[in-house]
Design brief:
This protein is mostly helical. The chain is 66% helix and 1% strand. The longest helix is centred in the N-terminal third of the chain and has 23 residues.
Length: 438
């Protein structure tokens, strides 16, 4: 992925590129967070770090890779930032909001470039909360988090979410401008609002993962690079706030779902549902780590929604075969999840679990109840789950109508093909679809 992020000079990348790529993955978020704290500007920070990586290409080829590459890049980026600040100060009459103090940066600039003992603060926690500030739209929060903490280019993020690059670029510009003009603080929020804001951060990371796990649209079910980025951000959050059990729950949930990635599509590119997956293709290392994280989080006895969802995923992961799944335990976990975080989607999932543990009729009753409010009417999985139970109960005309509704609502081609395949199985032999007008 390195050439995508450094397209301007990737073509001439010398031998140290492997080290530089590793440093990029491990240090980008940390360095950019520090530069944003010092300058107060996302754009100046990104420009300074880009110039530092460009300098590394030439210097590391000539002088060799430094003993502490992250510190080297941080120091050089600080110098580049200082140069940019000086340039901006000459235009301060045109941009009065750029009121930086050059002296503030000087101690960092004077660090020895090759000093291996250089330490610098980790400002990523402040950056995460800034990117996920509630005054920004959810779309802006996601884009800004991936751009700054993940280091993904505008083109990469646009490609991941199937947006025009110009649309994504405008979204980023608006978000950065709002942070500057509204003077959104670059800080961890006060204790009284910390949990609420932390939940927003977790939600943004999980939203990124969900888009990678079941892409909203397009001809691919999953996007592996995006899921890897969400998991990496989850690990960062766990390191920065290790005593928050919901952080561990989030990471565990993503790992346990991601462990099934390779089994979710067959060799023909078709969707394979959970009960039909080849479980030998599940990633046992991710499962083992996910199970450890679930146990670690639950021991803290501050159970939250993410931990419960991870516990449900853990029950599925521990089953060596579909008929070994402890559906009663899953139902109990969903009951607790409904108690602390009720929603129509949780009710839908609980109904599906009841169908597997207590019978299809009982599950269908609960699915109908979950959809009674109308809030799930445009949620394709509601209609797909309902259709599946109707099919199992041999109520084929009703199943066909539900499958038709689900097919009309999903925009992912892989999921749509699966639903249409099911629809063809329950459609009358004459090939006519049911009348949807009734």
């Amino acid at each position: 992925m390195f050439p995508l992020r450094y397209g301007t000079f990737a073509a001439v990348m010398p031998q140290p590129s492997e080290t530089l790529e590793q440093v990029f993955r491990e240090e980008y978020g940390r360095i950019i967070a520090t530069l944003i704290r010092l300058s107060g500007s996302f754009d100046l920070a990104e420009e300074a770090l880009q110039e530092a990586f460009t300098s590394a290409v030439a210097n590391w080829e000539r002088d060799g890779t430094p003993g502490n590459p992250g510190a080297w890049l941080t120091t050089v980026a600080h110098r580049k930032l200082l140069d940019a600040v000086r340039r901006e100060k000459t235009r301060s009459d045109k941009q009065p909001e750029l009121e930086y103090e050059t002296e503030r940066l000087q101690p960092y600039v004077e660090l020895a470039l090759f000093e291996e003992a250089v330490e610098y603060p980790d400002d990523r926690l402040q950056l995460i909360f800034t990117c996920c500030h509630p005054s920004l739209s959810r779309e802006a929060q996601v884009a800004l988090t991936l751009r700054t903490l993940g280091g993904l280019t505008t083109a990469e993020i646009a490609r991941a979410f199937l947006l025009p690059e110009s649309t994504l670029a405008q979204r980023l510009v608006r978000a950065k401008n709002k942070i500057r003009i509204a003077r959104i603080p670059y800080e961890v929020p006060p204790l009284k609002v910390l949990q609420e804001r932390l939940a927003s951060v977790q939600s943004v990371i999980y939203l990124i993962f969900n888009e990678s796990y079941s892409a909203t649209a397009g001809n691919s079910l999953t996007r592996k690079d995006l899921s890897a980025e969400a998991i990496r951000l989850g690990r960062v959050l766990c390191r920065l706030m290790p005593n928050e059990p919901e952080n561990s729950g989030l990471l565990a949930l993503m790992l346990l779902h991601d462990s099934r990635r390779d089994a979710r599509v067959n060799d023909r590119g078709e969707l394979v549902i959970l009960e039909e997956q080849d479980r030998s293709r599940w990633d046992r290392e991710e499962i083992a780590e996910g199970l450890r994280l679930v146990e670690q989080a639950l021991r803290l006895r501050r159970v939250g929604p993410l931990q419960l969802q991870a516990a449900i995923a853990a029950v599925h992961a521990e089953a060596q075969a579909p008929d070994e799944t402890d559906w009663r335990q899953i139902v109990a976990l969903y009951e607790e999840l409904m108690r602390i975080s009720p929603s129509p989607i949780v009710a839908l999932n609980q109904a599906a679990a009841v169908a597997m543990s207590e019978g299809f009729e009982q599950g269908l009753v609960l699915i109908e109840k979950a959809g009674a409010s109308g809030k799930l009417e445009n949620y394709y999985l509601f209609h797909a789950a309902r259709a599946d139970l109707l099919r199992r109960l041999n109520r084929l005309p009703e199943a066909a109508m539900a499958y038709s509704r689900a097919a009309a609502l999903t925009t992912n081609q892989v999921e749509q093909q699966y639903v249409r395949r099911r629809l063809s199985e329950v459609t009358k032999p004459n090939g006519h679809l049911p009348d949807m007008s009734s």
